[in-house]
Amino acid sequence: MAKVTVAKTAGFCFGVDRAVKLAYEAVERYGKIYTLGEIIHNPDVVKDLESKGARVIDSLEGVTAADTVVIRSHGVGPDVYEKLMEIGARVIDTTCPFVKKIHEIVKERSEAGDVILIAGDPGHPEVKGIVGYAKNECYVFADTDELMKLIRKIYEKIKKPLAILSQTTYNISMWENCKRAVCDMPGVTVYNTVCTATDKRQSEARALSSENDVMIIVGGCNSSNTKKLYDICSEATECHLIENAEDLDGCDFSRVRSAGISAGASTPAYIIKEVQKTMTEILTKEEEFNFEEAIEQTFKKIYTGKRVSGVVTAVNPTEVIVDIGTKQTGYIPQSELSSDPSVKPSDVVSVGDEIDVIVTKINDVEGIVYLSKKQVDAQKGYDEVKEAADTGATVSGVVTNVIKGGVIVVVSGMRVFVPASQTGIRAEASLDQLLKQTVNLKIIELNEQRKRAVGSIRRVAAEERAAKRAAFFETAEVGQTVEGEVKSITDYGVFVDVGGVDGLVRKADLTWARIKHPSEVVSVGDHIEVTIKDVDKETGKISLVYKKQSENPWDIFKNNYELGQVVDAKIVSITSFGAFAQIIPGIDGLIHISQIADQRVNNVADFLTVGDVVKAKITECDLEKKRVSLSIRALLSNEETAAEAEAEAAEAVEETEAEETAEESAE
Fold first, then answer.
1. Which pLDDT value is given to residue 225?
2. How far apart, in Å, are the Cα atoms of 531 and each of 90, 473, 547, 602?
């Protein structure tokens, strides 16, 4: 039998996976971004990002403060960061944490006076970035021979201390040779900077190459770590370096019975799966055709519980007819087609489809065999669910039933129970809103004996929120404008979700107008644009502002009103010492009790009512203290009396301010 084995470590490493996720989140958020070089060395990923609005650039020429620039996982030198800061562009740094650690080592040792020696490719972007952190002498070497030449030149003649390290994707066996060559030299410090994922990937690929007839290495042709995998495997067996499954066309696998597959750190999982599927199909077709076995297949014996393959010959509203290569006719009742009772047979299969089924009942008298596709799917689904339970991977499924205590999600044919507490739906809300929805979930419990699983939708949402939260804090800056959704409203302000983080808009930062409650301005569920007022990354607290500076009523008042001007003002509140009247929204002027009429006023309510619109004269305006005084009396008196009224108004305001200050001090 043909065998295809995929390396467990094949594909995205932590750093690449993080970089790709951040790049996709950035292009989704900002629409148009620049990546300084290809985000990873994989043409499929780069092409997909370009289709969404990501443009690859080789220099910062033409970049402006309005642009978003993504620094890829390979990292860059400090000069690039300085240039970006000078430009003022938004920066999303996806540099791999392992690479950043190398930057720190090189900077520290170089400042201490060490000569830096780096194992790697001088043309590789990661190496170029590392070299940028060396303040003094720095050299790049390819192998042990070049290392020893440099040491003879520097160490023996100049007598300077040496710091030796490597790029993260350097060949592990070559690195071990380098370390052995300098292990006894005083004044030489070696830092193990080959990534642990690279080490595991290379070791596993070497083992696979010794066990299989051929090795398939999947990755970008310009990927350094992918080429190293190819070199390692080529030492033991026939090896092919491809970018995707299409590159397998034309290769001769006629003598191959087993194949191993590994992939570089920049290769997405879906490409690896496509290569695995295509390679399996190729090797299956290459197997010799056995005529006797084919004849035997025609007369094969079947029994209840046996798994067989067949071809769909007819699809009816209530059943599917399948040719399983026996004298009996195979029937799949609608109930045995899918775990989702609502789907029609035509939604599941079509005439000509090759499917696997399990025999559930045989009727030799009528020449009928009853089959189940649902049971096969359930087994496949169980395998997928079990793997997800073992690895912590996320799986997808459709919510088919709402039952007591939770919902049923069908994952690749297997039913997974999700308790109500793990759905992410509030206790008072109905679970029916999930029905027929495709959801992502984690398997949190698996009973292998009974083949039953419990899942959590909420856990996936929590992880996604945590990832968004981390991404937000990486890019959040004071003064930055962001979009968010109103999540809750309190007496003192509004909480807004701005991407995995709930920021607070205090009541005073909601609007320039006087309000009694924040609900007068926004409602839960509203999508609003806010400005970041303050960011505390240690506590995770964000302060936001919703009101716009362009709508500042004091600026409007300053530009349109002046001392002595007569205005129409609306009475908004009445106090014991006077009344407040709105000149424009957000600006209320005080009409002191002495300025309401040209006679003595004992009770303000006898003369004014909330809602009244009155004509009044602006008698005082203090923009610093944000106070405006108005007088109705000044418009009712003659010139001499009016002047006295204005003077009295000023004194009254001072008295009122003194009273208010005294009250505040007492409080």
1. 82
2. 15, 15, 9, 47
